Structures are given as C-alpha cells and as structure tokens.
TrEMBL record:
Keyword Membrane attached: yes
Keywords: Carbohydrate metabolism, Glycosidase, Hydrolase, Membrane, Polysaccharide degradation, Transmembrane, Transmembrane helix
Gene3D superfamilies xrefs: Immunoglobulins (2.60.40.10)
Protein name: Fibronectin type-III domain-containing protein
Amino acid sequence: MGRHHLGRTAPRRRVPGRVSRVPALVGVLVGLLLAGVVATPAIAFWRATGTGSGTGSTTTLNPPTGVTAPASSPTTVPVSWTASTGIPAPSGYYVLRTSSGGTSAACGSSATSLITGTSCSDTGVAAGTYTYRVVAVYRSWTATSAASGSVTVTAATKLAFTVQPTSAVATQAISPSPQVTVQDSAGNAVAGAGRTITVALGTNPAAGTLSGTATATTNAAGVATFAGLSIDKAGTGYTLTAASTGLTSATSSAFAITVGVASKLAFTTSPDTSFTGRAFYTQPVVTVQDAGGNTVTSSTATITLALSPATATLGCTTKAAVAGVAAFTGCSVSAVGTYSLTATSGALTAATSGSFQVVAAPTALLWSGYSATVCSGPTGTAASLTYTFCLNVLGNGTFTSRVQLSDSAGNAVVNVGPDITVTLTTANGTATPTTLTIPHGASVTSATTSFTPVYLLNTSSTVTAGSTGLASAVAALRSLT
C-alpha cells in the first residue's frame, strides 16, 4: 500500500500541445483599438480557430473624390465624380443632395439602389441652391465624399425672343437668324441643352408660308437658333411665335416682308369656254411676279401670248404690263378645239394658262315666248313670223316677245361669251324697249319687247331683232291679210 500524506497537494501534470489563448485575444483587441485611432472608416477581419497563434491586418474603404456639378443648372442636374481607389473596391455608390432644408437621396439612388458608374442626372430638382456628396458602399461599410461646389437650380417657366426677326425680302432668309431663349420667371436665361422649341407664324397679314428651320434644340446656354427662316408673301405686321412643352410661349416683335425682283409670269386669270371668233367672256390677265408670287408693281414688261396648239388664230398677242399686270382685251380663237395660252417676256419664267374650250358660235336670233293681241296667227317660223287681221274695231294688235340665241339648226344656245346686245328696229310702229340683252350664261333676253304697229296707208308693220354677226328675227303684223 502507498502512503497518504495529509496536507500535501499532488503536482499538476502539463498536457502536451495545449497553448494559452489569452495573448492572442489581447492582440486582437489591441489591433482593433489601433485601427479605430488611425483611420475612419476602416474594416478589419480576422479568423482564429483551433489552437496556436495568429496575425491580423487592416484596410480602408476610400471615399470617391472630385464630386462635380455645374454652378447653375435647370431642373436636371448632371453630377459626376472620381471612383474610389484602393482595396476593397466599392460595389456601387449613392448620391446625396443637401440644401438649407436638409439632405435627401438624389439621382434615384439609395443605399439599396446603387449606381455602378461615376455619373448621374438628378431630375426634377426644385429651384434652389444645393451641394452634392457621393457615398461609396462595400458590404456594410460606407465612405462619404466631400461636398461638391454649390449648384443653383433655376426652373424654366417661359420662352423669349432674344434675337428678334427683322424685315426681309420675300423668300429670302431673315437675317440675323432669330433666337429663342429658355428663361425663368424673372427673365434669367436657364441653361440646358436639348430642349425642343418650335416657331410658327403668328400674325400673318398676307397668308404667307414660313420656310426654313422651324424646329431647333437649345444649346448649353438654353438658346435655340432658327436658321434660314423665310416667308413667301409680302406684307407688313408679321410676327413669329415660339413654343416648347411645359413653357409659356413667346411672340416676336412685328416685322415686314417686301417684294423681291421680277422673276416669273403667272396667269392670274385664264380664259374659260368661249365661242369661235368671238371675244372671250373671261379675258386673260398675266402678272409679273417675284419668286414668292408677289406682284412686282414696278414692272412694265411687254408680255406676248401664244396659242397651244397653234392650229387656230389667236385674236390678241402682246400687252405691256401696268403696275406689273397685263390685262388683255379682245382675245378670241378662230376654230373649235381645246387650247391653252403661253405667256412670255424676256428672261422671266414663262407661264401657261389653264386649258379652255372653244365651241361653235351661235348663228341666229329667234323669237321666244311670243304672243300678239287682236291679230290672227302667226304663220312662219320663229325667225320670221307673220300675223294678220291686226286692225279691227277693237284697235291695233300688239306683239310681245323675248329674243333667243340659236344655232343653225334652230336649237337654243347658251351664251358663253360676253353679254349680247339685241337691237329692235321697226317699220310703221314702235318697240319698247328698243334694246334687249342676252346675258352671259343665258340663252334668251332677260326682258321682253312690246311692238305696237301704226296703220295709215300701209297695210303691214314689222319689228326686227338684230345683233352683229347673227341672222335677225322678223315679225310682221298685217292690218288685213
């Protein structure tokens, strides 16, 4: 049996491989404290398992630098920055906008909605003064940049003509080119490229047409330039309007467009359907014009007409313009057909009329809607009537009729020429009225004539309806047979 010693403790046995962990933990804590003192923010990462000793290292998430925004901007502010350097690299950024009213997220970004690039556009910013900061993010760590310079945001509210249109010659470019500027409510220019502005005619005293660059976009200064604008019709008191979505439109000051040099001829009146050998009802009118179609009132050019096709004779040829207008008279065509006229004058651009018809002319006059009192009859034709027994105890008979335009077959012909005057001549009697008219577009006179015979020793009285170039109509009223 062994001995048992009272009051003595048996010595501890050291287990091989067992190491004290206290020094290692102390090292960790000291490293963390030192990292907190040297840099902010910082990250540190260690892992220790099992037994033994370990070492640790620290690194810093660097903030982005060079945050830039323009000193003034419309409601969309461009922001850019230089990416963070070093390790770890950030997984993205979000942007903060700060004003006297506080700080809010910008560019549609947030801590959970990161921007992976190094620029953004902050849209819909209210008028005011701001600075921008950019926050780099890596896992749960962040690093915030220094603030940008101040940005003054001005809200665009209206347009203004800052270069007004000036008077110009018809079809020639207005110079200098009109300019329209985007402005705030105080009339200050609001910078910003890419806004679309359209100009149009406002007051349009001569029904002119605007040509040229009518739609333009603003440059960086918020100015749109409209090059090559021109108006074709001469007039005084034109204005331009400018419009852009969401902005109050603008109206320019008034300006004039003047007539240019003579460059062409134009038929301002063309003939229409006419009779062979008779003057056109609508005589041609030719005008000397500038490139925009304005009458050149200073022109006295001599204008020559030609018939096309040249298968008949044209009854007029030349006419000198008066105040830029040549109004022809007496024009006619000798044969049936379809024609047009060509007008020429020196170096001026020639003009061609509309086509027109020339139809067979009427040949005769006939009585139309005729009647007689007391008399018996009539006998004969509408071209030659005879009444008998026009004298009895009741008195003398009377004859009343209109006069009709007729072709050689006796058919009524509508007058496509000028009004035709019919003259009434009598033998042994009186006619009232003594002249009648067959108007343009009608086939009979617009009024009737009334013939009253006078019987003395004579036994017959006559009334004759006549007109130049037409066979006459005669009516005879006999006292007996």
